[in-house]
Design goal:
Distance between the termini: 35 Å
Bound molecules: 5-S-methyl-1-O-phosphono-5-thio-D-ribulose
Low-confidence stretches: none
Radius of gyration: 20 Å
Shape: globular
Number of helices: 10
Mean pLDDT: 97
Oligomer: single chain
Order of helices and strands: EEEHHHHHEHEHEHEEEHEEHEEE
């Protein structure tokens, strides 16, 4: 099976975080080298790297690259190193507010350094490099486990609907919502996938369609407002989506439009599965109403991807990037440890 080009990797020799620029997909496969903290911040904010787990790994690797540049042998002591690392983490964490994996990965980096007993700043730097590589390895491993658990729910010929892109491109590799589909495909099970285009920035049309087609999976692209039609036609047996943050009560933030799909799934009696590594569960956020929802540039709705502006100049635009699906609409969470059924 052909997975899509690698999402991101560390080029330590050139002190760079290398990312696949997802804003150019599917027409151009181009890697860019990020060597400065501001470049990493902007790449996350501008969705060049996106998807909750992927931005966590990007931030961790970006933090390491920054600290490598900051570190001066014989000059930087451990306290100065720590202070700069905390400052840079706060800055990177502010690039996008909703996905908890971003904050989680940065906290993991800080914890790794704090728990490092021996030595000075050079040991701390070494620890940071190992930690960010480990976060990436662990993410891929978790996704493969999600794939295994999720694939056990599938049967040959089933139709799966997915929203946004929670595939290999949204993670360090293999994906979350697409992982069960990849595992089933690797085992020779033929499925049909319906990919919502996912307005406004079309992660479904540009990314999910790209990566599933690349892998040889039977994928059909639909506009967001066609989900009820394919469900009413009896073509959808299950919905698989990813998520950006699960609150302690099970309410789940994911790309805007997910809530509507969940309501439709309930109406048509279709199971609605949320696939996520445990790092996406945020026990510090009690309920969905406490999740900060990112609002993005109105131009994403009125101009982006159109040959010319298609909405009136000056029109008011509401452009939330995520919505919250109440726990009661979720059939189960598929994690790397188990499938979690209610009560959550
Ligand atoms: O704005 P994006 O493209 O970062 O939104 C991505 C999603 O909503 C994904 O479904 C979510 O991050 C899970 S990715 C495994």
């Amino acid at each position: 099976m052909n997975l899509p080009p690698e999402t991101l990797f560390l080029d330590d020799a050139n002190s760079a975080l290398v990312i696949l620029d997802q804003s150019l997909l599917p027409t151009e496969v181009k890697y860019i080298h990020l060597t400065a903290l501001e470049q990493v911040y902007n790449a996350i904010k501008e969705l060049k790297v996106r998807g909750a787990p992927a931005i966590g790994v990007a931030a961790a690797m970006g933090l390491y690259i920054h600290m490598k540049g900051f570190f001066r042998p014989d000059e930087t002591d451990a306290a100065t190193f720590m202070a700069e690392m905390e400052r840079a983490s706060v800055y990177l964490a502010s690039s996008r507010p909703t996905a908890v994996n971003l904050r989680w990965a940065l906290q993991k980096m800080i914890h790794a350094v704090k728990s490092c007993k021996a030595g000075g700043a050079s040991e701390l730097l070494n620890k940071l490099r190992k930690s960010c590589e480990q976060i990436k390895t662990d993410d891929i491993e978790a996704n493969k486990q999600i794939g295994k658990y999720g694939a056990a729910l599938l049967k040959p010929g089933m139709g799966i609907l997915t929203h946004c892109n929670a595939g290999a491109l949204a993670t360090a590799g293999y994906g979350t919502a697409l992982a069960p589909i990849y595992t089933a495909h690797e085992n020779g099970m033929l499925l049909r996938v319906y990919a919502d285009e996912t307005r406004p920035v079309l992660q479904g049309a540009r990314l999910t369609a790209f990566e599933l087609q690349h892998a040889g999976v039977d994928v059909t692209l639909i506009c967001d407002n066609m989900a009820a039609t394919v469900m009413a036609n009896g073509w959808v047996d299950a919905v698989f989506v990813g998520c950006d943050r699960v609150a302690a009560n099970g309410d789940t933030a994911n790309k805007v439009g997910t809530h509507g799909v969940a309501i439709l799934a309930k109406r048509f009696g279709i199971p609605f599965y949320v696939c996520a590594p445990l790092s996406t569960i945020d026990k510090d956020t009690p309920a969905g109403a406490d999740i900060v929802i990112e609002e993005r540039d109105p131009a994403e709705v009125t101009e982006m991807f159109y040959a010319q502006r298609m909405a009136p100049e000056g029109i008011k635009v509401f452009n939330p990037s995520f919505d919250v699906t109440p726990a009661e609409l979720i059939t189960a969470f598929i994690t790397e440890k188990d499938i979690l059924y209610p009560p959550f």
